Amino acid sequence: MNDTDVSKQIQQMVRFIRQEAEEKAGEISVSAEEEFNIEKLQLVEAEKKKIRQEYERKEKQVDVRKKIEYSMQLNASRIKVLQAQDDLVNKMKEDAMKELLNISSNHHEYRNLLKELVVQACFG
Questions:
Q1: Contact criterion met (CB below 8 Å) for 89 and 95
Q2: What pLDDT does residue 101 have?
Q3: Are 37 and 29 in contact (CB under 8 A)?
Q4: How many domains does the chain have?
């Protein structure tokens, strides 16, 4: 073989090696891109899961706060009703005492009231 043939053969071998290296580099690049996309997708899904969990936790907190607020408002309403009932009973008691004082000053009415109360007690 002469120098030209050797040079051609070496050039051919260099081209072949270069082509093999480029193909291998392409494969490595594609593989790296796939691994990157898989890792990226896993990270995105993990963050989505964290966000969903955080949202659910905050939603539960809001529900608990709403229930507590509703309970407090309900209790406040009950207290108002009980206070109104108590005020009414006290007013009726005061009115009855005033009326009893008025009746006790009139001997005839007082006697009739006592008689009616005794009769009512006997039947009731």
A1: no
A2: 85
A3: no
A4: 1
